[in-house]
Design brief:
binds adenosine monophosphate
Length: 177
């Protein structure tokens, strides 16, 4: 049994059925995973869709967790949460009720058929880079690059605004301010 605890960053996004509500529901479900604890989260970001300009805006957030789940089991667990939340659309960058991506898993670099860590799109998305910076301003990627440098060099702007979100893990209730 792997009992070592790892630090993992997860990006959560939704643009259907009350996106802020879907994001909160996903945080709660992740916090309920076995051997997993929510450590911190970013503000909630409202963002423009990537490719489909006529699709609804997204709510995006990044969370930091500690977990003893392996990367593969964590991915399976996140896929289960997506399924249980009613995700049906698998069109690349199409609308989705919930999308859960593993951004970073300790200092792991992994390129398998089902899992790429760090996430392949991490460096191209302001709605991932800025929330990550909010949580961990001094973060260095497994490649040795500073997150700050990557964020400063990013030219792709999708963020419209951000809202403070307060998640109370003791009661598992949460609210937006
Ligand atoms: P998505 O459309 O974002 O849900 O991703 C589709 C597929 O990407 C998943 O079924 C995973 O097998 C794969 N994938 C590769 N790397 C990652 C990652 N770091 N986090 C989540 N999914 C990933």
């Amino acid at each position: 049994m792997n009992s070592k605890s790892s630090i993992v960053y997860i990006a959560i996004g939704s643009n259907l059925n009350n996106p802020p509500f879907q994001v909160k529901k996903a945080i709660k479900a992740i916090n309920y995973l076995p051997k997993t604890n929510l450590l911190s989260h970013s503000s909630l970001y409202k963002t423009k869709p990537l490719d489909f300009k006529n699709h609804p805006d997204y709510a995006n957030i990044v969370i930091k967790i500690s977990t003893s789940l392996s990367p593969v089991i964590l991915l399976k667990s996140l896929k289960n949460i997506e399924f249980n939340h009613g995700r049906v659309c698998n069109e690349r960058w199409g609308s989705r009720i919930i999308d859960l991506d593993i951004l970073l898993y300790d200092n792991l670099i992994l390129n398998s058929q089902t899992l790429t860590i760090p996430h392949s799109q991490l460096r191209f998305r302001d709605f991932v880079l800025l929330p990550l910076l909010e949580i961990s301003p001094e973060l260095t990627l497994p490649t040795g690059e500073k997150l700050k440098t990557i964020a400063n060099n990013n030219k792709e702007i999708y963020i419209i605004n951000k809202t403070t979100i307060v998640y109370d893990s003791s009661t598992c209730s949460n609210s937006f301010m």
